[in-house]
Amino acid sequence: MKSKAKKRGISRCPKLLDTKIYKTGQTRGADDDVIYQNRVSRTSTVLIPYDRWPNCANTPNGELNFENGFIVIISPETYFCNDNIDQELKSSGLHLGINTLVFYETRTDWNKYNPEIMGWTAAQSRREPLGGQYVARVPATTSVENGGKIIRGFNTTSSKGAGIRLYEYASSEMISNCRLQLEFFYWCCFDSENTSIENGMSADDIRQRKEYIQSECQKFDLLDRHKLIEARIINQDGLTICPLCLEKLSSRGFFSRLEQAEGRKVSDLTVTQINLFHIEELKYGVYNHRPYNLGWGHHHCNVVVKDSGITETIEWMYRVVKVNIDNGYFTPENKSS
């Protein structure tokens, strides 16, 4: 059952926080030179590489379908070098131009299997039928004549990008529950009430909002303390922590812009000190945008972890520190002295 993030008579949390939580239901940024959509809902059409079909084609949590469908993308070499490819696709329920597209990424493939010479049409629709047989995102090069970038398909103002990365997908229900849980973590910050007052909420607004969020989280089984501690999202005292460094988070970090290095300042920077943190990284084969796998963490800790995952990052950090100690470049602080 899908939860409702707003209830009549219950004040919303501060606007900047509300926006930050809302954006967790969107995908990462993407520019016009890639096939992916830019900051759209995680329920959008998913793109599934053919070499990962059917192992990665299952929808999460037993759902019958992806909410906005899927498109399988296949490389030109795989498509044109296999005499039985159409039969293989058909046996998997795939059909070129219906739910499958040939995806051109290199100039070599474009020149060797030029779709325009074959009379193919670039696809523009994310719904069946797709309106074409291919999509292209070939970067520019100065090493050949007429080496400009080749952008074909899903490149109009109203239809930029073919879809989202498969592992970024989440259902509407999952997104809603994640947002509830993420707001609960904000209220678990040790100074959240004072920060909320500083950002326009009254004490009564805060009390009602906290009660409402806790009630909604209980309704959807989002408050399992053991799971939250095990996932490094809260500590034993029930306070929100950064999943990497385990430091207690100040709620002021949700509203404070990231400090910029001297000489590299950007006037329109909107990155705050605290960011969304996936405990287990997003990757093919699993759907990790889900409750109990999302927390809040320091921006710099998040950058360090990136797509490697926390365990792998800590192992790497340990090796880095150890080799610096062993070679005399770093001496740990002697806390007993």
Tell me what you see in this structure.
With 337 residues, the chain is α/β, with parallel strands linked by helices. The chain has two domains: 28-168, no CATH class; 172-323, no CATH class. 29% of the residues lie in helices and 11% in strands. The strands form three sheets. A six-stranded mixed beta sheet has the order 5-4-3-2-1-8. Strand 6 and strand 7 (159-160) form a beta hairpin. Helix 5 packs across helix 7. Residues 263-269 have low confidence and may be disordered.
Topology:
Blueprint: H1 15-23, E1 46-49, E2 70-74, H2 76-80, H3 85-91, E3 100-104, H4 107-112, E4 134-138, E5 150-152, E6 155-156, E7 159-160, E8 164-165, H5 172-187, H6 192-198, H7 203-219, H8 225-230, E9 274-278, E10 294-298, H9 299-305, H10 310-326
Parallel strand pairs: 1-2, 1-8, 2-3, 3-4
Antiparallel strand pairs: 4-5, 6-7, 9-10
Helix pairs in contact: 5-7
Radius of gyration: 24 Å
Distance between the termini: 57 Å
Please bin the fraction of helical residues: 25-40%
* Sheet with most strands: 6 strands, mixed
Average pLDDT confidence is: 92
Q: Order the strands across the largest sheet as they lie in space.
A: 5-4-3-2-1-8
Please tell me what the overall shape is: globular
- Percentage of β-strand residues: 5-15%
Content-based structural category = alpha/beta
Point out poorly predicted stretches: 263-269
Strand count: 10
